[in-house]
Amino acid sequence: MEVIKGLKYSENHEWVRVENGRAVIGLTDFAQEEFGIIVFVELPEEGEVLQAGEPFGSMESVKTVTELYAPVSGKVVSVNPKLTENPGVINLSPYGQGWMIVVEMSDPAELDRLWEADKYEQTYVHE
């Protein structure tokens, strides 16, 4: 299982990569492996405002249905169009083409509450 250094991680298995002051958000490799083949993803629409810790969508896999939680607050400025047609892209490329949304952060200090790669890996990957 891959955990990428330089990203931030939530306890709910979302990752955050900051690009030009925006948060690119996706599902971790650990989570996609645990959930199995992802068959459906419901994501917010562009323009929606998210609150950190609140649900922003859901994901259905062959094993379960789970809510997705916003790791940071802000306005959704982009939604990955590939996931509508093929949500399994998350399984194939969780840190690349499987990204879910991009958020214009309203409070970048919220990033400080997220975990570094080492903590995420020690907590979930090396059980």
Automatic annotation (TrEMBL):
Cofactor annotation remark: Binds 1 lipoyl cofactor covalently.
Cofactor(s), names only, from the UniProt record: (R)-lipoate
Residues carrying N6-lipoyllysine: 63
Domain of life: Bacteria
Record has Magnesium as a keyword: no
UniProt keywords, alphabetically: Lipoyl
InterPro entries: 2-oxoA_DH_lipoyl-BS (IPR003016), Biotin_lipoyl (IPR000089), GCV_H (IPR002930), GCV_H/Fam206 (IPR033753), GCV_H_sub (IPR017453), Single_hybrid_motif (IPR011053)
Tagged with keyword NAD: no
Matching SUPFAM superfamilies: Single hybrid motif (SSF51230)
Domain Lipoyl-binding: 22-104
NCBIfam families the UniProt entry points to: gcvH, PRK01202.1
Role, per record: Is also involved in protein lipoylation via its role as an octanoyl/lipoyl carrier protein intermediate. The glycine cleavage system catalyzes the degradation of glycine. The H protein shuttles the methylamine group of glycine from the P protein to the T protein.
Subunit-level organization: The glycine cleavage system is composed of four proteins: P, T, L and H.
Family to which the UniProt record says this protein belongs: Belongs to the GcvH family.
Protein name (Swiss-Prot/TrEMBL): Glycine cleavage system H protein
Annotated source species: Paenibacillus ehimensis
Gene responsible for this protein: gcvH
